[in-house]
Amino acid sequence: xxxxxxxxxxxxxxxxxxxxxxxxxxxxxxxxxxxxxxxxxxxxxxxxxxxxxxxxxxxxxxxxxxxxxxxxxxxxxx
Length: 78
Description:
Elements: H1 5-9, H2 11-23, E1 40-44, E2 49-53, E3 67-68, E4 71-72
Antiparallel strand pairs: 1-2, 3-4
């Protein structure tokens, strides 16, 4: 997948943000080409920009939580 238009328009911001994440060891560079890469977006506010990683592709593989008598089973409440 390719990056969203907002990330392409803000190329320097995205590059700087990725460098900061690498330096702070929040992300790591891998020595191989990944099979799949989630796209990036940039959210713009009046005062600042935010880098967004779009992980919506993973929703297709997410298990649905069962509901038991109105309680959510994710919390272990039965």
